[in-house]
Sequence to fold (255 residues):
Amino acid sequence: MAIFAVLFEGGGELGHYQVVDCIYGGRPARVLYSGNRLAAQSGMARDGKSELLFDYNQRFLELIRGLIPKRLLLIGGGAFTLPKVLMDEFPRMSIDVVEPDAKLPDIAQAYFDFKPNKRMHMYHDDGRNFLTNSAAAYDVIVIDAFENTEVPLSLQTAEAVRSLRQHLRPGGVVAINVIAAYSGERSRVLRRVVAAFQDAFPEVRIFPASPSLSLWTPQNFICVGYDGQLDLEPYVRYAAQDLPAVETDDLIRDA
Fold:
C-alpha cells in the first residue's frame, strides 16, 4: 500500500482513526482506518470510476439496486460512503444509519464528501440496543458492523437475527457483511452467522464479495436472509456459494 498522505489522525468516542490518501486495491483512494492501519473501515476511490472501492459495498449496492427499497436500515456507518451513494442514487429512499461513534459523521463530512440529508437519520447507538428500542420496519436491513475484523458477538446470536427479521416489512431482506474463510478453521464466524440466519429465515444465501480468493482464505462474504419469495441471483454479480455445513453447536444464543 503506497501512502501519499495522512490527512487525519485522532481518537473518536470508540477508537483511534486515520484518514489516508493511498493506493488501495490498485486504485487511488481515501481510506478510513481504525487502529494503526490495522483494519480499513471505509473508503472511496478517487479515480472517477463508478465501482465502489470495497467489493462488499459494491455487492450491497447491487442488491439494493435490484430491490429498490423505500426504507433502509444500515447498522454501521463508517465514513458514510454507502449512505452517500444511496442518497445520491435513490432520491425517494429513506435511510436510517446506526453508528455508535458520534465522531465518524464529522470525519465523513470533512474528508469523504458526506453531506447529511433530511432523508437520512443518524442514531448514535449500539446496533443491538437500537433494535431492542425501535419499532421501525424496513424493506432492507444492511449490517456492516465490526469489532476489529469480526461481526460483534451481540449481532451473531439467534436472538439478534430474529430481532432483525422482526424489523422487516413483508418480503424484506437482511444482508450482513462477514469476514471469514468459507472452509476450514477460520470459517467459524461465517458458520455462526449462517446458523443464526437459518434459525430465523426460510432462505439464506451467501454471496462472495470477490471471486478471486481461495475459499480457505478470510475474505468478505454477504450473507442474506429472506422469506424465499425472491430470486436474488440477478441482483448480485457473483453467484451464491452453496451453504457450508452448519452444526447445531454453531448456533449461539444470548446469555
In short: The two ends are 41 Å apart (CA to CA).
